Amino acid sequence: MPELFGTAELDALRLSLEVATRSVVCSLPAAILVAWLLARARFHGRVLFDAFVHLPLVLPPVAVGYVLLVLFGTRGPLGHWLYEHFAVELAFSTDGAALATAVMTFPLMVRAIRISLDNVDRGLEAAARTLGAGALDRFVSITLPLMLPGILAGAVMAFAAGLGEFGAVITFVANIPGRTRTLSLALYTAIQSPAGDALAVRLAIISFTLGLAGLLIAEWLARRVRRWLGR
Amino acid sequence: MLAVSVAKRRGAFELDVAFQAPTPGIVALFGRSGSGKTSVVEILAGLLEPDAGSLRLENLVLFDTAAAYSLPAERRRIGYVFQDARLFPHLSVRGNLRYGQKRAPAAPHIIGFDEVTELLGLAPLLARRPYTLSGGERQRVALGRALLSQPRLLLLDEPLAALDAARRAEVLPYLEALRDRLAIPMVYVSHQFEEVLRLADHVVLLEGGRVVAAGGIHEISLRPELAAIVGPDAVGAVLEGVISEADAARGLARLNFGSSTLLVTAKNARVGARARVQLFASDLILATHPAHGLSVRNSLAGVVRDIREDDSEAQLVSVDIGGASVLARVTRDALESLGLHPGSAVWVLVKAVSMRSHAF
User: Fold this and answer.
1) Fewer Cβ atoms within 10 Å of its own Cβ: the N or the C terminal residue of chain A?
2) How many CB atoms lie within 10 A of CB A55?
3) Facing residues of B64 across strands?
4) What is the DSSP-derived secondary structure letter of residue B260?
5) Tell me, what CATH number does A75's domain have?
6) Domain of residue A75, residue span
7) Do B130 and A230 touch (CB under 8 A)?
8) Partner residue facing A123 (CB), from B79, B86, B130
9) ipTM of predicted assembly, 2 dp
10) Residues of B in contact with A121 (CB under 8 A)
11) How confident is the prediction along chain A (231 residues), in pLDDT tens digits per residue?
């Protein structure tokens, strides 16, 4: 009996996990900052900023990928600058796939974190203040731990959604085996090829299992954290 | 000395409060809900910025609009015990207690961890999480947490209001222990006069965002402004004295104040201890001659100082009994038939059992 999964599937799986992990890890601090700005800060253009952050939710993913290509392509203004100064090349690379995934899943993460931030009792922060905690100290010691349910939920959700990101990835970094061919891109390629049915089924099973596991882990984590906070 | 003089507009509510209170000791902010008590403590803590005014504790300026100065709340070192405890849910009781302690400056050191846990009976709770605690336990932890931040002033915003009578009775003795063992000045917000009677030395009466009366507890207990808040049935002079005799078998004690003495019921009175009693105006009987053959245990000689309207059917008579005053609520009819007027000599009859007494 041949091995259950071949290198094509395992490569796609490994790449999907890597891309989703990188996108979540890199965008999480930014998502927390943006959620905080939207929930707490009062500044001009906040409504516009809010809309801008949520744009990937409503734009066609292909359009997002195209904008990334224009900005971060080797000849794009940001892509050129990154290459000149840091020798970082985003177009057609795994890093680029992570960036595209991060942009697409960013609003999901911001939303979840923002809701949990709105639920943080400001009275507890005031209490911390009277106990001598300055602004940053309060955020780290009180606000952040109390936001944890939302941060975890947002991260897991963004991770699960990031595993299957398609349109923005294929537009920005194309479909290169071992570099940018993630699960959904591999699945798409398999469906397109005449003899790819068996491969497509196996990839679909992997995607299905990952998604289910992600949701179960998210639920389990949320319950653990809620119990930890005594809710 | 705690000197407060602040104005703050909050929507339609206008707070304009000025008072000075001696320190250390407990100052009570007393008034109905909505009278501005919580706003005053929030302003003291630095959580609410006044529109104008100044705040001073001893020689330290906390806030002064004239100098455009406001010490941030986190640097004021003013402990705040909230009505709803506000324990940090993600920390254990020990973590909550250590929170302020870790952030307190090394000097001056007021109280240590072991002393706080001992004083407030927190040792068995240290490993527990806030959501497993009862309301009374929560308030004790909140009190301990505030104390360990080594505060120069402690604010207690109705710390017992969310508790039932049994839990209140559980926490009150701890508050008394604090007052008696530590020299931290405290501001105690309450709308229960009984708590004020047990704890406070100085009382500030608030009504509609303004101070309507301020002074020592005896002086305030005679004020008509207090009667307006607590209602006619709860009006009565508060007297403070020293216990000169205690008869544990009969549950009686003799309280000396000024040149008079009172026989009061007291279970655990100790000779030499200070004690307070409140003589309810509606329980006092006035007589123009010394009483004989009555069950009343106390007969105090005094002189009528003034008579004022209480409500439609009664008058409040203030009687000077050698250094202190008491209030008696009597009908107009009784006043007329006894022929009482300011300057009349009277005997005030007080049943030993009809006093709200409290020994320190």
Assistant:
1) N
2) 14
3) B54, B69
4) E
5) 1.10.3720.10
6) 7-229
7) yes
8) B86
9) 0.87
10) 86
11) 345 677 888 889 999 999 999 999 999 999 999 999 999 998 999 999 999 999 999 999 999 999 999 999 888 888 888 888 888 888 889 999 999 999 999 999 999 999 999 999 999 999 999 999 999 999 999 999 999 988 998 998 899 889 889 999 999 999 998 899 999 999 999 999 988 889 999 999 999 998 888 888 888 888 888 888 776
